[in-house]
Amino acid sequence: MNGDGTRAAAERERSWWGWGWADQALDEQACAKLARRVSPFLPLDGDLAPVPVLPELPAPRLAPPTAVAALCRADARTRAAHAYGRAYRDVVRLLRGVLDNPPDLVAYPRTEQDVVAVLDWAAGAGVPVVPFGGGTSVVGGVEYRGGGPWLSLDLTGLSGVAEVDEVSRAALIRGGTFGPDLEDALRPHGLTLRHFPQSFEFSTFGGWLATRAGGHYATGYTHIDDLVEALRVVTPAGIAQSLRVPASGAGPSPDRLWLGSEGTLGVITEGWARVQRRPEFRAGAALRFDAYADAVQAVRAVAQSGLRPANCRLLDPLEAMLGAAAADGASRLLLAFESADHPVDALLARAVELCRAHRGVPEEAAAGTAGQWRETFVGAPYLRDGLARLGVVVETFETACTWAAFEALHAAVVAAVATAGVTETGHPALVTCRFTHVYPDGPAPYFTVYAAGRRGAEVAIWDALKRAAGDVIAAHGGTITHHHAVGRDHLPWYAGQRPEPFALALRAAKTALDPAGVLNPGVLLP
Amino acid sequence: MNGDGTRAAAERERSWWGWGWADQALDEQACAKLARRVSPFLPLDGDLAPVPVLPELPAPRLAPPTAVAALCRADARTRAAHAYGRAYRDVVRLLRGVLDNPPDLVAYPRTEQDVVAVLDWAAGAGVPVVPFGGGTSVVGGVEYRGGGPWLSLDLTGLSGVAEVDEVSRAALIRGGTFGPDLEDALRPHGLTLRHFPQSFEFSTFGGWLATRAGGHYATGYTHIDDLVEALRVVTPAGIAQSLRVPASGAGPSPDRLWLGSEGTLGVITEGWARVQRRPEFRAGAALRFDAYADAVQAVRAVAQSGLRPANCRLLDPLEAMLGAAAADGASRLLLAFESADHPVDALLARAVELCRAHRGVPEEAAAGTAGQWRETFVGAPYLRDGLARLGVVVETFETACTWAAFEALHAAVVAAVATAGVTETGHPALVTCRFTHVYPDGPAPYFTVYAAGRRGAEVAIWDALKRAAGDVIAAHGGTITHHHAVGRDHLPWYAGQRPEPFALALRAAKTALDPAGVLNPGVLLP
């Protein structure tokens, strides 16, 4: 997340089996240190799974015409790197060399016309095409599970900021642009998209749009949905270009059909996004709450105040202990405000006042806590991979619910997942919760689970935990996903969440736009 | 817009031919006074069209089964009142008694099951059903133009606030609830929906949803789209109920399919909406700008500052003269901030500072101007009806465009409409502009046109003006409608604005949800 993103990317290698940069994976020493940190909480078997060796792959089963073939790669490393997303269950499978059905080919279009050519061929030949941005899906969104041959469509060749409208504060960004690259391109204009999902370094603008990504800002226009001015989408039925206007009341929003369509209704090649001046004024605080219920009420008060903090991250006691080294059984709230135009100290002061009314205590030493969370945040997936090698089952899931529903949902999720996580070791799973986003009508709780694993059974253990979590969330009125998308892993609960007539409409729209059914089959519409 | 909405409604009668309450139509004396005000600007023929007498209507051509018939009215007044919306061209036609094809029946469902019964019968019998909230459409949205028999589905019997969740700040509001009634129901809870379109008194919650209404707040969450938590919609293919959560990333948003669907994809029977505490802190100012271009730059600076004024209404010189009695050739900007939680004086001061940097001059005597605009705003349609009786062609249209596009768009619209408005009197039309809403990436300009009419030719004159306006807006990158919806009158430009693949998807969704094609035929999808 620094200015060297582009330059560094040219020199550094992405991991084919784990998160992010290959050279940032924890080494043996770091894993040993991690093991010492974890062992007080969870039994470890003392093993460390080795970094995997790239397995041999069967020969590709596809032979596209020359024009398309020229865009494709078929080497084992490229195919393996495009076989899965980067969920825990993906990393565990790759650690074991499990590559049951990697893509036969990976296509790298450089132009919109290349995308058209790939889709034309695929539709005619009936070849499933899975659009692939940065490949950071944690819900099986880029993993074809149909068994037959398929093509992964890597869009990172459609990269760069094509145009900046400084007057209207908008930028035309190509779909395959990684987060750091688009920020690098906007920085000389004094502008920022100000959209920082946890995957920022390794995910793309088009991926954010296709999955309705949530940035890390707690309130306000934090979802990519709200930052979009216009979209350009290649569908098998033609190219859709929406009008670039700040708002329109002309029928249902065209953009909202493709936002969240996860590659099933077309390939987003570029979009105009609203950008902002870079923040210059900042103020932050951290507060301690002895009672979690008080902290929740304080956050609700802040969320309903109209103050719109940039950060409003409530850590429950276990999250505070594991994530912020605060082992006193209290909850921690990280608050921050920022603006490109005016001082925000008064806003922070009012938010702190609201928290004090709910027995929140500002902490002297908290500046570090507040400042360092971002580093921990972006580094977490590397730790996750280290834990996976140590045999720990570790994963996150998230939801959003109303304030009225939260208390019961939180208690039920923690209880159900801890119980479902009692593996043969006898240890219950650890479940922590933080709020990533808060709205006037409810929070977006984000849960992290740590459970004692058993070598070879990790995926099954996680799937059981996930089933427990998903069922309890649905039963308590939460959405199956606030920002992780649906992919293939959330389908059972998504089917229950979406209104049946909407499923009919979506299916009809899909058939109209992708009559051959080749676009990311198995996602959203099984 | 006062607390007596409900009580008053029981005693007062709605006009069947003009805007709002029958007893608020301008009387002859008021029309004479209006004529004196207008005559310096536009030639008048000295006539005053009389208040029309309800014409005889042909007998209804529909005979639904008893259960549905019991919900229907067929008296001439009810049918006439449901024949059109309340655009200028509607009022002019009604002033002349032009009722070519009024609805044969008007159904008044009291329950969701009643709606299901009406749609079941209509789908089976192939009878067009036009959902009708308050009937304030200005784009032909509630006027069936197919020629055959049809039914108007008046939803105002589905009325009231069914539930209030004070913790999550949300309310379950039935679709047929008028603005004042829902505010009356929320007031005892200290809450407000804070959504005030100009039609507030006479339009319904369901109508706002179906047309993507814009409230009168200039910035922030002013569109009804952003205030919706969940929807319930009766479609011929089943009932759609979305999940009540503050946010979700589960596929394309189901609610966004029905928002703006204008009755073509289902009947919105109720919805959960985000409500707020009633504002307690307020601050406002009015500023004079000698140069309109300076004023536009100042507003852009405020819109891009993140200050989020509740009101940021820029009046161009002609609008300031006709609407705010400021005949000095300068533009006026009305600024206001409000909050339920904290003082907003510092926000106002910063906004004024931004305006001063663009040569804005705060006005001493401006408090009245700023305070009175709302009264003028809600009373405007009554004046419009008076002008129509005086023979003036008077109407409004609106758009939204980027800041970069605004200057050229504004100049071109004013020129084209003034020219197109040179009727046989030789007088060009007067065209005024104000900003109703402003966004970081562009304004929503709202134009009012006054042209010398000719008795009997008013509709044709207006249609020519509208064609000129629509063509110029489209040519300059503006949306054909920012908050007036598409209806039937905006179809030619809507077809050009929406991406063709989206039209395919929408058509397919329509066929899936309304296979008999009975829901508001002729709107959105001709």
TrEMBL record, chains A, B:
GO terms for biological process: lipid biosynthetic process. The record marks R313 as: Important for enzyme activity. One of its GO terms (molecular function) is alkylglycerone-phosphate synthase activity. FAD binds at P131, F132, G133, G134, G135, T136, S137, E262, G263, T264, L265, G266, V267, I268. Keywords: FAD, Flavoprotein, Oxidoreductase. Pfam families: FAD-oxidase_C, FAD_binding_4. The active site is at Y446. Its cofactor is FAD. Residues 99-278 form the FAD-binding PCMH-type domain. Substrate binds at R384. PROSITE patterns: FAD_PCMH. Belongs to the FAD-binding oxidoreductase/transferase type 4 family. This is Alkyldihydroxyacetonephosphate synthase.
